[in-house]
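Question:
Now give any protein.
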Amino acid sequence: MEKTFLHTLSEGAAQIGIRLGKAELDLLAAYHRELLIWNRRINLVSEKSSREIVIRHFIDSLTPAPWISRPDGLLIDLGSGAGFPGIPLRIALPGLQLTLVESSRKKTSFLAHIIRTLRLDGVTVIRERIEVLIGEKACAGRFDTVLSRAAFKLPELVRMASFFLAPGGLLIAMKGPDP
């Protein structure tokens, strides 16, 4: 199963212009293994097959990488869930300083576990509702990139992101067909 995961991931990443080395593939495979184990207990993602997970979560999470102008910058992932897209992006762009914001205790427990397991430096998890963080001076105008994948309606995301973005920063709203 892991060979298939790695092949599908490598091929998918290459199709979007991202070359993953052995170190990155090993980290992503370890993340995938842990996700499958934890998903049985706390339902982190709805997809059950490894193929669905690699395409919908891992490859999809890498699609913003070409647009991140500062691969060593500060990125905040609003509504991180099981760490998508933030953690795969951080693995592909190891200089990235990543903040994951998620309000669910179960999901932040998983995020803390995966960060320790993968030994990812420069990654912070905040267990809080985003609405509460708005107004925290430590977060205001701090991030080069604000990223969210299907967690909010676009107008709400734009409003929230404006608080976190540094001047000239980039908002990446990963949205499906519905706004």
Notes: The two ends are 35 Å apart (CA to CA). The chain has a mean pLDDT of 92. The beta strands are 74-78, 97-102, 123-127, 143-149, 165-174.
